[in-house]
Fold these 3 entries.
Entry 1:
Amino acid sequence: MNVIIPAAGRGTRLLPLTSNCPKCLVEINDKPILHYLLSDLKKLNVTKVIIVTGYRGEMIREYVDACEYFSDIICIQNSQFDSTNSIVSLALSRTFWQNDFCIIDSDLLLRFDVVEQLIKSNNTCLFIDNTKNPDSIDMKVKVKDERLIYMDKNLSRDETFGEFFGLSHWTPEDAADLSNEIDQLINQNKSDVWYEFAIRSLAQKKKLPIKTCTSDTWFEIDNILDFQKAGSFIKHHLDKT
C-alpha cells in the first residue's frame, strides 16, 4: 500500500508559523504535524510513503531522512509550487499509482481508527464528514446513493451532505480515470486549481463511493485559530504516540 501526501504549499494562512517552515513540520504539542500521521502509518504496516514537497522541501527531506518510522519515504519536489496548486503536486505522484494507494493531505490530524479504515478499504472511496454544520464546511459535497456527485466550496445548504477533507483511497482502475481528468484540467491551463477539481470532474462520469465519518476523527490545521485548537484535539482524540 502506497500513501501519497501532498505537502508543497506555502501555508500562508499559518503565518508567521510558516515563515521558515513548511506547514507539515509546524509543531503541535512539541511534535511536527507529519509525525502523527507517519507514526500511525507505521503501525498499519504501510510499505511506502510518497511526499510531494515544494516550499522548504529540503526541510521535509531532512526530517524524513532522520525519521524513525520508515526507511522508504520518497520525496518528490514540485518545482512549480509557487505558480501551481495541488493538482500538479498530485500529478507528480502518478508513478506510484500502479497499485491501490491513499491520498492524505499533509495538514490533517487523524484518529487512528479512521486511518486504519482508509488503509484497509478494498475499493475506491472518499471520506466525508457528514456531522458538521454546512455553514462551517470548507469543501462541500453533494451525495446521491452513497456516492459523490459534486464538490464545491459554494454549494447551498440544501445541497450539502458533508465535507471532503482530503482523505481518499484509490484502485488503479479508478486512478487511471482520475489521471485523465487531471490531464484535461492541466491542458486547459488549470494547473492552479486543487486536485479536488479533478475528482469533481470524474464524479460526473463514474461512481465514486463515499464513507462517512464524524468530526471527532479528524482535524485540519489551516490557520492560526486551528493551530491554537489542535493541541486539545490531540489530547482528546489521538492515540498516544
Note: The mean pLDDT is 94.
Entry 2:
Amino acid sequence: MENDYTLRQVAENASKACYICYRPSAHVLIDKSNTDFFYICKSHLTDKGFATRVDPPVDTAAIEAELKKKQLEAEKEKVKKEWEDAQKKKSDKNEEEKDKEDAEKVKEMILKDKKLPEPEPVPESRKYTLHPTIYTQRVRQKKELAAAKKRAEHIKTMQFPGVPKGLPGEKKEEQDEKKDDGGEGEGKEV
C-alpha cells in the first residue's frame, strides 16, 4: 500500500458516509494498488492536516505543440475554403447549380449560427497524498482488519474437545467397563 491516492466521484445514489465527519459523500479516495479506498467530503481535501494535492508535472512543450497543430489545422481549413470559393466563381454554372449552391450556403450559415452543445469536459482525476498520521492510521486499520479476519477463520477451523461422558470423579477405566456392560455396573460376571 502506497501513500498515493486518486480522487474519484461516484453517483449520488451510491454515496456513503465520509471517513471524517460521517456525512454522505460521493467522492472516493482510492490508492494506487486499489486495495484501500474510503469516502471523503471534498472540503476535507483542502485541509493540510488531512491530505495534500499532488499535481502531475505540466508538459508545456506538449501543450504548445498541440496548440500549434490546432492553429495549422484552422489555417488549412481557411485556405481550403478560399480556394473552393475561387474555383466556384471561375466556373460557369447553370441556374440549377447556383440554386443548389445557395441552398447549401444557407444550410452552412444556419449550422454556423446554431452552435452545437459541447460535451462537458470529464473532470480529470486528482492525485493526493495523505498526511503521515492519517496514512499510518489507515495502514494500522488495514492490518487490524486482516488480523481479525485471520482470527475468525482460525476460530472456525478450531476443534474443541468433546463433552465428557462419565460422572465427575470416575476414572476412564470405570467408564469403559460401564460401556461394555451396556450401561449397567451390576450383574457383570468376570
Note: The longest helix spans residues 60-90.
Entry 3:
Amino acid sequence: MQAQVKGPQHKLPKESLRVQVIGDVIFDVVVLLIFAVLFGLDLYFDWPSWIGFVLLVLLIISIPFGFIGYFATVINHRNWRYDMDEEYVQLKQGAWFQKDQLIPVTKIQSVETKQGPLLRKYKLREVEIETMAGDYSIPGLPEKDAYALRNEIAAYAKAKEEDD
C-alpha cells in the first residue's frame, strides 16, 4: 500500500525574488560591459569588419534573453515550494519543467546555511542539503526560518551540524 505524501506548501519570501532579480541584473550588466569592451577593442585594433558584425548580432540576440531571463525568474519563484516532515524534505520547483523532489531524511549527510553579499543585505540565507545522491538547496529563506529548518533537518537526520 502506498502512503500519500502531501505536496509542499511553504513559498519563498518576496525578498528572495528581489535578490534573484538583482543577481540577474548584475549578470546582464556584466555581459553588456563585456560587449562594450569587445566593441572598444574592435575599434582600437581595427579588427576585420566581420568581427564587429558578429558582435552586433550577438548583442542583438542577447538583449531579448535578458528579458526572458527576468520573466523566467519571476515565474519560477512563484512556483517554488518546500516543506519538511519526519520522513522527507520536499522540494518543488519550475513552471514549464516541473521538478518534484522527495529527499528521505535518513539519507541526509549534512545540512548547512550559506549567505552571500546580496542575501546578507536582505537578511536571507540559503539552506543546502547534502546526500550521497547529490546536493539540494532552498534559496532565500529569512535567517530565522533558515536556521530553524536547518536545525529541524539536522535533528531528524541526526546529522552533525556545521556552523558557518
Note: The helical segments are 14-45, 49-78, 117-121, 143-157.
